[in-house]
Amino acid sequence: MKFALCLLALLNLGALRPVGGRASAPISTAALEELAYPFDVEAVSAEAQQPQVRVQRPGDNEVALVEEDLPQGRVYYNGSQLWKVLVDKRENIELLVTLREDKDISMWGGNSTTVDVLVKPNSVEKVRKIFKDNKVGFDIVIEDLQKVIDEENPAVIELDDRRGHRLTWQAYHRLTDIHGYLDYLAETYPDLCSVQTIGQSVLGKDIKVLKVSNGKPGNKAMWVDGGIHAREWISPSTVTYIINQFVTNIESEPASIQNMDWYFAPVLNPDGYEYSHTVDRLWRKNRARGVGQCSGTDLNRNFGYRWGGKGSSKNPCTETYGGSGPFSEPETASVERFIRSIQNWKAYISFHSYGQYILYPWGYDRVVPPDYKDLEAVARRAAQAIRTAGGPSYTIGPAGGTLYPASGGSDDWAKGVMKMKYAYTIELRDSGRFGFVLPANYIQPTAREALAALKVIAEAAYLA
Ligand SMILES: *[C@@H]1O[C@H](CO)[C@@H](O)[C@H](O)[C@H]1NC(C)=O
Ligand SMILES: *[C@@H]1O[C@H](CO)[C@@H](O)[C@H](O)[C@H]1NC(C)=O
Ligand SMILES: [Zn+2]
């Protein structure tokens, strides 16, 4: 019973994400579900992890235990290690659940055969011994996470300002550079580009949307967003890369790109994005002031379709806290209001990382919509386009069945409520070598392949 509850807590984190439906999968997802779902989510929340992380500050000799909601200072990951752990036996999962409960580890992602596990510095020896005693196979993928964080993002080289903006695709930029770039485009290409502020974040930062359109009446509309999850830095970079390709090259694009009203929202979670730059590189949620010490709502559990179901937590201290109600957060409420104000939607694309997946609804459970074959066919062509563009393999499938069920996601809402035909969540690179901390030199190859996939979806949306 205790184990089952803990397992659900772990699964609620969205961390362990077994691939479903394969007879060859060592741990069947059905088995996991059977363990997980006789229980009430509320009951799990009561005993879910409390909000503490071990951090080490420069100059400190001791590892301090600090509240998650740090009032000042930065979270450091000196000595934290990323391990790829084999989960070929159910006992291995049980072990991970226990270690997570004891706050020795946290989970980043994985599939039915391996889980990416972040081991806290003071727990490295303990976990190593437990794995040895229990014959749990693992590889150390990152020896010192802080080192990778320090090297991930080179300083932006200051150029003279003749281009009128500071954005590059050689580094991950702060919000002002991204917003400055959107404003620059609207000024430079007034017949093609316009910027709208669709709302403000919890802390009052603008949520900006760039519309790219030739203004033809009868154009269909496509939505592309990034940065719902703060730490997934490759996502906003990918969206701005795509914008740049379209805007600077629009005459040579096919009709499906030219005669489309594009709405790009590169950073839907501006507070979280900035926080992941300035305080905690691994921050995921928005910065809503929560109950007690725990802050942040998972914006991708806060959308208003089947809100609050499987894979979403009612505990504000968890990474998948869905908020106090559907669209309780200003960031998601702004998106809802804006999208409802426009007709002719055909597609909704949300970029996330990591894992290399092209996922379509439904996410809320292991079920698919009636037209799933259309979604599957386009996803397959998109994955093929990625390979043709020289990219790696992307797994395609319905979100709930391919990963673990997760309710309140943006793509489910786009499909289920707004009736957009082609709704996808694309999990960009990588497959767990760097995970969320993907070095900036991967921005261009990753964004290039995402562009190839997006063009395939645009073609389908154009004909829909
Ligand atoms: C932890 O990492 C930071 C950033 O690299 C560094 O400045 C600091 O000296 C490190 N602390 C220790 C105790 O190694
Ligand atoms: C799980 O991910 C690892 C890479 O992290 C990969 O080698 C393995 O093939 C994947 N397994 C499945 C079933 O997709
Ligand atoms: Zn995400």
Describe this structure in words.
With 464 residues, the protein is α/β, with parallel strands linked by helices. It folds into two domains: 2-152, Alpha-Beta Plaits (2-Layer Sandwich); 162-463, 3-Layer(aba) Sandwich (Aminopeptidase), CATH 3.40.630.10. It is 34% helix and 18% strand. It contains 15 helices and 14 strands. The strands form three sheets. It has an eight-stranded mixed β-sheet, sandwiched between helices. The protein has a four-stranded antiparallel β-sheet with strand order 4-5-3-6, covered by helices on one side. A hairpin with a 3-residue loop joins strand 4 (105-110) and strand 5 (114-119). Helix 1 packs across helix 4 (90-101), helix 8 (234-248) crosses helix 15 and helix 12 (372-388) packs antiparallel against helix 15 (443-463). The radius of gyration is 21 Å and the shape is globular. The model is unreliable at 1-69 (pLDDT under 50). The structure holds 2-acetamido-2-deoxy-beta-D-glucopyranose (2 copies) and zinc ion (ZN). Residues 19, 111-114, 431-432 line the site of one 2-acetamido-2-deoxy-beta-D-glucopyranose (NAG). It is found in: Secreted. One of its GO terms (molecular function) is metallocarboxypeptidase activity. Its main location: secreted.
